[in-house]
C-alpha cells in the first residue's frame, strides 16, 4: 500500500477532525518558532532574494496549524526586510499534501486569514495548494528558498514489502507496529524503509532548493537507548490491545488484524543524522529535540497526571484524527467509536505509570553547493 487516501488526516471541522484535534502539532510549531525565525532571517540576510521568494509547507494537512506556519513566515520576512531597510519580496507559499487532503477546508479559511493578518507587514503573499507526495519531485530545479515540514516524515511511503510472505500475508502477525515480540529483522525493515524514504526526500529537496535554501524539519523520534513510557511502541501497542480484545469478542476479524500494519517509524537522532551525512547534500545548522506530553492539553512540566481518564480521552481523540482513515479503510467505519473508546481506557491505565511524552526531533538543514 503506497501513500494515498489512508495516509490523509480526518478532514472537515467535526468532532473527530484533524482541524479540531491538532493542538499537539500546534505546540510543536510554536516550540520550533525560534528556529524557523532564525532560518528565514538567514535566508533574507545572506541570499540575494529575487523579487519573489518561494516557500512550501510539506505535509500541511488542514486546519488552523496550516496557516499558522504561513503567518510565521510572513511575519519573519517582514521583520527582516524592515531591519535591512529593503522592500519585501513577493512571497509565494505552497501548501503541499496528498491529493486526498482537505484542501477545500484550507481555502475556505483564507478570507479569515487575510483579515487576521496585520496589514503593517507589507509583504505581498500568494497562497496555493500543491497536491502530491513529498517523497517525489514537486518543484522545478532551484526554485524554492525554504521548506518546512512538521510531524510528517515519520510516516513511511508504503507498507513494508519485506513483511509480506510468499502467500501475500503479513509476517510478525498480531503486531500492528513494532512490538515487544517483534524480532530484530522486523525493526530493521522499518528502519531501512525510513532511511530509503528520507534519503529520497533529501535528494528531491536538494534539486528543488535554490542556492542558500534551507529547511526546518520536525518529526516524532525515539530515544537512543531507553524505551520510555512515551515511546511510539506504546501509542500503537495500546491500540493494538484494543483491537485484540475486539477480535476475542468477535467484533473484528482476526485475519484483518493480522494483515494490518501502521506505516510509521520514529527514528533516533543518530539515525536521521546518519542519513543526512551519508547523502552529503545538506549541512546541519541546528539539531535538537524536545519532549511533548501525550495529552495535548497538558502543558505542565511535572511527571504527574492529574486526571488520567481525561488525558486518556484527549490522547485518543488526537490519535483518531490521524489514524482513523488508516483504520476505517482496512476494518470499516463501524468499529471506530467502540475501538477508540477502548483505546482511551487503555491509555488512561497506561498513564497511571506516569506522564508519557513524545520525543520530537528538529533539524535545520542548509543546502550545499
UniProtKB/TrEMBL annotation:
One of its GO terms (molecular function) is methyltransferase activity. InterPro entries: MeTrfase_7, MeTrfase_capping, SAM-dependent_MTases_sf. Keywords: Magnesium, Metal-binding. Pfam families: Methyltransf_7. It comes from the Eukaryota. This is Anthranilate O-methyltransferase 1-like. It comes from Ananas comosus (Pineapple).
